[in-house]
Structure of Phospholipase D:
Amino acid sequence: MARRGKAAHEGAMASRQQEAPTSPISVTLNGNRLTVIEEGAALRDALVRLIDGARTSLKLYYYIFADDGSGRLICERLVAARARGVAVTLMIDGFGSSDTPDSLFAPLIAAGGHFGRFGTRRSTRYLIRNHQKIALADDKRLMIGGFNVEDGYFGIPADDCWRDLGLLLEGPQAEAMARWYGQLWRWVTSKRQRFRTLRAMVRHWHPSLHHDPADPFRWLIGGPTRRLSPWAQVVKHDMDRAQRLDMVEAYFSPGRGMMKRIARAARRKGARLILPALSDNGATIAAARLLYGPLLRRGVEIYEYQPCKLHMKLIVIDDAVYIGSANFDMRSLFLNLELMLRVEDAGFAEAMRGFITQRTGESRQISLETYRASRTGLTLIKQWISYLLVGVLDYTVTRRLNFRDPDAD
């Protein structure tokens, strides 16, 4: 059932109804219920409810799992789940959570839970990051999105937090992610964490091998490959024929090909971007702003989100909605392990466009005139240097160190 005055669907034959504007966006498709979670406090509450409601198993992976109030709360709930007999597995990224001590997870391990870190500092593979975020209960209910387990993603403190987005899925589609999680756990607990094995895992999940045109759901796994990441290949295909494109992105530094596709959508029925005005890394904002001129000249609408730092990853292309962990920068497009869910449903897409329209009301629109007026020689130099660091050097160094030999471990 879709809400917020948008279309309610049960497959293609869904009926329409009106709901209060404050109702969460929700849709039921093929026996799977999706609920969009928009606010930081609601994200943490939903994650706690997911954990507390588990009966048999909990499987979590987070890029950042901080040793702060939220991290300790989630650990406490996981320990409580173990006490009632739930099998608990937690994985975190070795790079994203490098500052988080193992002592935070000692009570979980002592209670019989399983814990592992993705990646190792002892090789160039440390530059390959698993940027996925997933919490799975009983292989039937899961949460995905861009948020990590850290106070800032849950609205704490209010004046210096991240605005993010989560998706709760309840239904048979969760089982696919249980299979992916099992493969990932076996890799993380292997002695060498072989790079070749990881790449084979990503190839096994290539969308071309698992696509049923009648199924509105497509799970997209991104990972380190020599070409465009598999998740981004599907986005690229959709963008090639896109009539309407809407994106909300925390980090935006794509290459020329993706820029051209965005511009083509603008010439059809329109393209709209919401990007951050605030971030924890000023270079990423400067790098994105370098790209504003070519897009604005081709009719793309650009907004900068004002209330706080933006961490959202949301794409709507015609009737397809993408929600998950992937940014629209070179690292997510080519290198990181990412997890995106593509949902094709006209009502859900309409609802998410309405959500994006609401965010434009919290944003400052960038016109070509204001952009030109703000672009001094000094800012141009800063933007070029930032793009070089964010969009070229990080990407190039990581690829050259990790793709020297296609059969390398």
